[in-house]
Design a protein that fits this description.
Layout (H helix, E strand, L loop, with lengths): L31 E3 L5 E3 L5 E7 L11 E12 L16 H4 L8 E4 L6 E6 L5 E5 L5 E5 L4 E2 L6 E9 L2 E10 L2
Antiparallel strand pairs: 1-2, 2-3, 3-4, 5-6, 6-9, 7-8, 7-10, 10-11
């Protein structure tokens, strides 16, 4: 729905009024964020194990299905939104799509890794490059296992090459 700027504030609709629920503090309304499941979650300013949920954010008014203290968190949360990482990154990411990839099967293991990773493939891999999610090259190796013990915990990208030709891209996770 598009609203002319001069009528913006007149277009607001109330979809919920705080119902007084406490657990143990009031679960009032605070920050909102759209999550990967296309719902909008709302946190509280107080320590609470509950979040409010807008189940259908594209619907207008009460049809959006706003439910207070609908989602129970595993622990208390206050003043912030839990982190909703985007695990939907794949080979169609823009940095990969710009390159020609022959997509030969290869696996990075163990995944998640703590100290080292190995590469398993039915084809010869002459070089492996490891990048962080900002595509900064962290390590290049011509043999496995590859030491990742001094890499911070996080998600990384592994590129496999055969004679300078990119043959595949895999994500892996480092944990400590």
């Amino acid at each position: 729905m598009t609203v002319d700027p001069e009528f913006f504030f007149d277009s607001k609709e109330t979809v919920g009024i705080y119902d007084g629920f406490t657990a143990p503090f009031p679960t009032n309304f605070w920050l909102m964020q759209k999550a990967p499941d296309d719902k909008i979650y709302m946190s509280s300013r107080n320590s609470s194990q509950y979040m409010h949920v807008i189940h259908n954010p594209d619907a207008r008014g009460i049809d959006c299905d706003f439910i207070q203290h609908d989602y129970k968190l595993p622990t208390t949360n206050a003043f912030a939104m839990p982190y909703f990482p985007n695990y939907r990154l794949g080979a169609d990411s823009t940095w990969v799509a710009a390159q020609e990839v022959e997509e030969i099967d290869f696996t990075v293991y163990p995944n998640p890794a703590t100290n080292e990773i190995r590469i398993k493939s039915s084809h010869t891999i002459s070089e492996v490059k490891i990048y962080n999610t900002s595509m900064q090259l962290l390590r290049t190796s011509k043999e496995t296992p590859i030491d990742v013990s001094n890499i911070k915990p996080g998600i990384y990208i592994c590129e496999a090459y055969n004679n300078s030709r990119l043959i595949g891209v895999q994500k892996f996770v480092v944990i400590k």
